[in-house]
Amino acid sequence: MRSRMIHSEDGEKTFILVFDTGDEVVSEITSFARENDLDAASITAIGAFSGATLGYFDIVRKEYEKIPIEEQVEVLSLIGDIALNEGEPELHAHVTLGRRDGTTRGGHLLEAHVRPTLEVVLTESPDHLKKRTDAVTGLALIDIRDR
User: Fold this and answer.
1) 2-137 under CATH 3.30.1330.80, yes or no
2) Is the pLDDT score of 114 beyond 90?
3) Tell me, what DSSP letter sits at residue 147?
4) d(Cα 41, Cα 39) in Å, to the nearest integer?
5) Is the Cβ–Cβ distance between 124 and 35 less than 8 Å?
6) 62 vs 37, 81, 130, 132, 134, CA distance in Å?
7) Tens digit of pLDDT for each residue in 53-85?
8) What does the alpha-carbon distance between residue 24 and residue 4 come to, in Å, rounded to a whole number?
């Protein structure tokens, strides 16, 4: 993955991240956030994957049901955020993937490998975001209460 800051003003920074074939998306974005001390950011992306694992949150079991995608797919939309969870940056992203026949698959992005590229725009907010575990769902959710 290659990256470059393309804008910085009043505490807001925008980066472009360009992934290459074989790069794993979730771990690379998380590493980038850690290395750049990002604790509040939003992301959007387009590109393609050689395969991915998506998730559907089962509210009763309080865990993600894995959805394997074992084919070349287009990333039609990838949106998400980065916030701190127990002091570490955590990516929360959803994705819609286009298959060869024009049908789509979508869900929570758990893992994906790029082929041939993925172009990510990441915008850091000057404010800080933290997640707290929700007792009802068991999910780490952004807490916007005043601190």
Assistant:
1) yes
2) yes
3) -
4) 7
5) no
6) 30, 21, 21, 15, 11
7) 999 999 999 999 999 999 999 999 999 999 988
8) 18
